[in-house]
Design brief:
By secondary structure, the chain is of the alpha/beta class. The protein contains ten helices and ten strands.
Length: 271
């Protein structure tokens, strides 16, 4: 066991043509490109839901528009492994609004149950409109019971999450180093939902829970580089490495080492 596939998050779509590692790139970044890069490695498309709900408290992108762009990415960029749905995150700050870490959230002022209903409805709509695209289901919630209820809702809608090639787990990145994230993942595994992608996991979360994931993505390297302030040795073209491919790749190598080591340790303990 070598651990989950790690997709390096980036806000630099041009890296698709040169990074040479799996990437996680947002539709919000790609949509402005008239000429798209050609991917040299597999990648996945993020729908940009976090920013949509943070800034507007609702989705402003019609599903048909999102689908049209995904088809363009698949055909022009190539190597698109899968795409996220237009899901609704369930963190309290997203629902209630307010300020956190200098970011303002307008708030949806809806319930977790309504966010879950809209997430499921969107997946059904996207798949009905575009059966040719690989759009993964997202399980959302805040408490363990929330996630279990959302899994039940998928079952009731005729979507067997245990048979899906990949199921995305949302709204965990703000508490990924806690025991709660592990309990949520374990509960899903008990239900037979074992092929899970973790949205927005950082090193701590991958270290503790990577053995329960099939894949994960993270853009945390950029924040780490910004906190560092000065560029890494050998980088002379910028004030910090928040947009630096060299720094991102080195950070990603460190993450892979952590999660591979931890996954092997868990495998030995389970043997």
């Amino acid at each position: 066991m070598t651990g989950p596939l790690f997709l390096l998050g980036t806000h630099q779509p041009g890296w698709l043509a040169k990074a040479g590692v799996p990437l996680f790139v947002s539709d919000r970044r790609l949509r402005v490109y008239k000429r798209l890069p050609v991917a040299v490695a597999p990648w996945a498309a993020d729908s940009g839901g976090f920013t949509e709900l943070k800034d507007y408290g609702a989705w402003t992108v019609p599903p048909a528009e999102y689908i049209a762009r995904l088809r363009r990415y698949r055909d022009e960029i190539g190597r698109l492994a899968w795409a996220a749905p237009q899901d609704w995150m369930c963190e309290p700050i997203v629902i209630n609004g307010g300020w956190v870490n200098g970011q303002h959230f307008v708030g949806t002022h809806l319930t977790v149950a309504e966010h879950q209903r809209r997430t499921l409805a969107n997946l059904v709509q996207l798949r009905d409109m575009a059966p040719d695209l690989d759009i993964v289901p997202a399980v959302q919630g805040w408490t363990q019971d929330d996630y279990e209820r959302h899994a039940d809702a998928y079952d009731a809608a005729g979507i067997d999450l245990t048979a899906e090639p990949l199921v995305a787990l949302g709204s965990v990145c703000r508490r990924q180093g806690t025991a709660e994230a592990g309990r949520i993942l374990t509960a899903l595994h008990r239900r037979g939902i074992t092929r899970i992608h973790g949205f927005g996991f950082k090193i701590l979360g991958l270290r503790d829970h990577g053995h329960l994931l099939t894949s994960a993505d993270s853009l945390a390297w950029s924040q780490d580089a910004r906190r560092r302030g000065t560029p890494m040795p050998g980088c002379t073209q910028h004030k910090n490495c928040a947009n630096c491919l060299r720094y991102a790749l080195q950070w990603g190598t460190t993450v892979l080492h952590h999660i591979t080591t931890n996954s092997r340790n868990h495998a030995r303990e389970a043997a």
